[in-house]
Structure formats: C-alpha cells, structure tokens
C-alpha cells in the first residue's frame, strides 16, 4: 500500500479528516436521526460491495451509501489469515471491497467483515434448523 494515501502518518487521527470530509454529520444528532430511518435498508449478513474512504490504524472505513461510514476492522479482513493485521497491507482509499454486514448499532456504529466465520453465520445456520 502506498503510505502517501494515508496522509500524515505522524498524526494517528489523520483518518478522521477523510471520514469527516465524506460524512460531515457523522456522530452528530442529525446523522443519528437519519440513521434510524436508513438502518432498515440493511441486514446482518447482507453482502455489500463498497468504496474505501479512509484508513485508520485499527481498520478501514467504507461508504455504504448512508449518512455514516461502516468500519472494516483489521481483524475482520480476509487477508488476516496471511499474518497479523496491519494498516499498511489492506485495501487503498478509492478501492472497492466486498464484505458482509456484521453489526448494525443504534448509534451510528456499523461493522462489516470479510471473514468466513462470523457470529451471524452461526445464527443463520441455527435459524434454518
């Protein structure tokens, strides 16, 4: 990965500028109100293909087409089987990634995964039996 994409590597919060530029109302009452309306458009386990908008030391932020970003935590990336997750070996800003929704919180917290084994897989299997 090109480290220039991350902006200022000396600033561990530089990713926030990328997220805020795309989602100016993120974590503000306006976005939380809209999220309550948008949340029903998504489901746990739903496959989505979305654009990377920011890279943080702990994960990758995706634009999922609503007022808030989704987090692909490094431990949920498909490439973590190749070694410990690191910020500099994942998808780049602007790249599109395929993942599934792992959780949908009420307070603008959305997480996605690329892993095959996820808690929602077990729930789906149990429900079908």
Number of strands: 5
Strand content: 25-35%
Number of contiguous helices: 3
The separation of the N and C termini measures 43 Å
How would you characterize the overall build of this protein?
The protein is globular. Mean pLDDT is 76; it is low at 1-9 and 118-129. The chain has a single domain, classed as Beta Barrel (OB fold (Dihydrolipoamide Acetyltransferase, E2P)), CATH 2.40.50.140. The protein is 22% helix and 26% strand. The chain has 129 residues and is of the alpha+beta class. Strands 3-2-1-4-5 form a five-stranded antiparallel sheet. The protein has helices at residues 15-22, 29-38, 119-128, and strands at residues 47-56, 59-63, 69-73, 96-104, 110-113. It is built from three helices and five strands.
């Amino acid at each position: 990965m090109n480290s220039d994409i991350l902006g200022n590597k000396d600033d561990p919060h530089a990713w926030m500028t990328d997220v805020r530029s795309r989602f100016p109302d993120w974590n503000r009452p306006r976005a939380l109100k809209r999220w309550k309306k948008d949340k029903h458009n998504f489901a746990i386990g739903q496959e989505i293909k979305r654009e990377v908008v920011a890279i943080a030391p702990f994960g990758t932020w995706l634009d999922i087409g609503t007022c808030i970003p989704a987090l692909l935590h490094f431990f949920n990336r498909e490439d973590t089987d190749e070694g410990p997750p690191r910020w500099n070996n994942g998808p780049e800003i602007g790249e599109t990634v395929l993942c599934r929704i792992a959780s949908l919180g009420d307070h603008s917290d959305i997480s996605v995964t690329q892993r095959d084994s996820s808690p929602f897989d077990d729930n789906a299997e149990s429900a079908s039996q």
